[in-house]
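Colleagues,

For the teaching module next term, I've prepared a clean inverse folding example: a structure given as tokens, and then the sequence designed for it. I'd like students to try predicting residues themselves before seeing the answer, so please don't circulate the second half yet.
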């Protein structure tokens, strides 16, 4: 994987959108997200080319869809726009060029109907509203435990101590995974999305990455065998092990590993980065923090607004199965189409002052961060519940969570990740 040394982000870091050359815009450049300089190029695309062709990216030619309306049009048209080739902008390497360290996985989000629908239906009950009611007291208990053990007067990393820890505990519960090993789930999630096509950087130790992913597969295979031998329960592994359409999944090890990783990444990255992004946003917009202190009843709406503002999953990719007119452009069968959720959530025609966090925004729930159509995020209600409970408990305890240093971000065009965020707590008097 060789990447050009000077890419569009170099030209855009200081640019206003009006100064940018449309032909030079390549939103797949991970540096745009590392440096948080994606706003101007996306604004240019939405204004002048909401369906835009980039012929020369390191991951091959692709169409960018950047407006809220057209993203929904692609996401809900699964008859024409297929997921079967994968969901990230990166191409799966052809069989003949695979290295011994490459791990090519399959999963149900990278499937079309009816296979997708059958496999999804097996695990969906774990996060159905009836089951979520059972989760809430336990989530609150874990939130309280985490917040009670934070440093009172010292600077600490919010991402590691709160965002990652709460997510790890929740994932361990969803899988009924050994609680003391919960941080393994976070590690497996992180290395899944750490590929050159998404980060622009070589994997430091491909042998170790492969070994770790095989460790994940072996661990979950053991859990699977245990669940098969016991009566069905409400954890994700038990549901798949006993589900009619998923019980034979272990016969295809890469499909098995892929579906496990899909559920881990889905449960890790979205919640974790919305937790971090929310703290960052309230520091950036202190008027919204004051509004929260005055009107805590806004917390459920604020959660939706934080998810919109952060947009943890930057894009999803499809492949056109037939020629299709979209906006003013004709997309040809076989071409790659990328929906930029991050851009759709900053579409001023839908969200006035879209770059601002507004916790009382009337249409905050209209965001596209969870996707639309048959691939809409399965755990969206669980993610919202975790964030709501967290902010309810934060509000009881703290006057302010002060960000005291720069946020460190990940270079990644798929997951909008915050690596670390130094904060200091100000307790209620």
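(Answer key — instructors only)
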């Amino acid at each position: 994987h060789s990447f050009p040394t000077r890419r569009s982000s170099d030209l855009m870091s200081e640019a206003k959108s009006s100064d940018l050359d449309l032909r030079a815009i390549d939103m797949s450049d991970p540096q745009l997200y590392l440096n948080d300089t994606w706003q101007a190029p996306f604004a240019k695309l939405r204004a002048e080319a909401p369906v835009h062709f980039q012929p020369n990216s390191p991951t091959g030619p692709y169409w960018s869809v950047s407006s809220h309306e057209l993203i929904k049009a692609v996401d809900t048209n699964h008859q024409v726009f297929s997921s079967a080739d994968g969901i990230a902008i990166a191409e799966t390497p052809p069989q003949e060029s695979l290295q011994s360290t490459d791990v090519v996985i399959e999963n149900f989000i990278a499937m079309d109907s009816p296979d997708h629908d059958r496999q999804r239906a097996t695990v969906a009950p774990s996060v159905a509203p009836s089951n979520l009611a059972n989760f809430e007291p336990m989530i609150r208990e874990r939130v309280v435990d985490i917040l009670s053990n934070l440093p009172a007067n010292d600077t600490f990393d919010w991402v590691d101590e709160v965002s990652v820890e709460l997510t790890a505990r929740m994932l361990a519960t969803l899988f009924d995974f050994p609680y003391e090993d919960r941080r393994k789930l976070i590690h497996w999630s992180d290395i899944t999305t750490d590929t050159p096509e998404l980060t622009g950087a070589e994997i430091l130790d491909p042998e170790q990455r492969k070994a770790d992913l095989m460790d994940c597969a072996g661990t979950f295979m053991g859990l699977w065998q245990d669940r098969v031998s016991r009566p069905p329960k409400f954890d994700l592994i038990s549901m798949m092990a006993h589900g009619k359409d998923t019980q034979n999944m272990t016969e295809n090890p890469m499909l098995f590993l892929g579906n496990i990783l899909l559920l881990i990444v889905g449960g890790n990255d979205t919640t974790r980065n919305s937790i971090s992004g929310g703290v960052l946003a309230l520091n950036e917009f202190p008027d919204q923090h004051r509004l929260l202190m005055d009107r805590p009843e806004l917390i459920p709406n604020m959660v939706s607004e934080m998810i919109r503002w952060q947009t943890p999953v930057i894009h999803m990719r499809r492949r056109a199965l037939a020629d299709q007119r979209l906006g003013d452009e004709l997309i040809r069968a076989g071409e790659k189409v990328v929906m930029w959720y991050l851009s759709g959530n900053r579409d001023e025609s839908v969200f006035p002052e879209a770059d601002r966090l507004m916790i009382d925004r009337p249409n905050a729930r209209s965001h596209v961060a969870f996707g639309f159509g048959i691939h809409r995020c399965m755990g969206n209600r669980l993610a919202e519940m975790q964030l709501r409970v967290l902010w309810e408990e934060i509000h009881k305890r703290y006057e302010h969570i002060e960000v005291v240093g720069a946020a460190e971000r990940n270079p990644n065009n798929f997951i909008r990740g915050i690596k670390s965020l130094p904060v200091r707590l100000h307790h209620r008097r």
